[in-house]
Design a protein that fits this description.
Length: 260
């Protein structure tokens, strides 16, 4: 296991057991052994503050603040993810989804390193939003293989939608008479085919594929997919092109309460 993978394994253990200090303290030992004693000390201070009583708590807080001041933690600091909302040394789990741009999957190693350094809270997130440009079919597997998505249950592959003026201003000069909706897909039909080959879909509970200009071939791939066994919500009606019996086949496969 390389060094990056070891960091990821520790972060996975930390966010999988948010109430347990043990993975945090083991990671602190690892950091110290690999040349980052101050960050290790910070994690230990944070953990100790969560369980010690005065006057020791006052001493630990003073030591912790002195450490932060040395590293200018009010600015960028040596731990870029630090802010005032950390919990025992790590950023709070956020309800905000992970946001991944399609182009970032050209270099998944860099994306993994970025997550470890800047956004370790992604290891606790349950939702992911894919951003333009459209993902290539060959990068779907790379997306699902990212270590920080193994706990994600809500996958948002909806295309980007923006309003644009399509006509002259109205007489009052305040608004435009016509508005166009410009859609920028994030996944293609080939991408949906590749998506449906991922065993990791077994853990997906919600899947949003709206506004991607998908056609019946994409819908058929979803109907045939053997891995969408935990699906509770499938959004794909808006911004796609389905004809004939395709929609009824989707409803038959997943149920009226799921497809929308």
């Amino acid at each position: 296991m390389d060094l990056l993978a070891q960091h990821e394994a520790f972060l996975r253990a930390i966010y999988d057991a948010p109430d347990d200090d043990t993975p945090r303290l083991v990671y602190a030992d690892f950091l110290e052994e690999h040349g980052d004693p101050d960050k290790a000390a910070y994690i230990r201070y944070e953990c100790e503050m969560g369980r010690c009583e005065p006057p020791r708590r006052t001493e630990v807080e003073a030591e912790r603040l002195a450490l932060l001041e040395r590293h200018d933690m009010g600015g960028i600091g040596v731990w870029p993810w630090y802010d005032r909302h950390t919990t025992r040394g790590f950023p709070l789990h956020s309800d905000r989804p992970i946001e991944v741009k399609g182009a970032e999957l050209f270099d998944p190693g860099r994306l993994r390193a970025t997550a470890v350094r800047w956004t370790p809270q992604w290891f606790g997130a349950r939702a992911l939003k894919l951003l333009p440009p459209a993902i290539r079919a060959e990068h779907v597997e790379a997306l699902f293989a990212l270590p920080f998505v193994s706990q994600v249950r809500e996958w948002d592959f909806s295309g980007d939608v923006e309003e644009a003026a399509a006509g002259p201003e109205t007489d009052d000069g305040g608004t435009f008479g016509l508005i166009d909706m410009i859609e920028t897909p994030v996944i293609t039909v080939a991408g949906v085919d590749a998506l449906c080959e991922q065993r990791a879909l077994r853990r997906v509970e919600t899947l949003n594929l709206t506004h991607n200009n998908l056609d019946n071939d994409a819908a058929r791939a979803l109907v045939r997919c053997p891995y969408l066994v935990s699906l509770k919500k499938l959004d794909l009606f808006d911004g796609n092109r389905f004809r004939g019996k395709t929609w009824s086949q989707l409803v038959e496969r997943f149920g009226e309460g799921v497809v929308g």
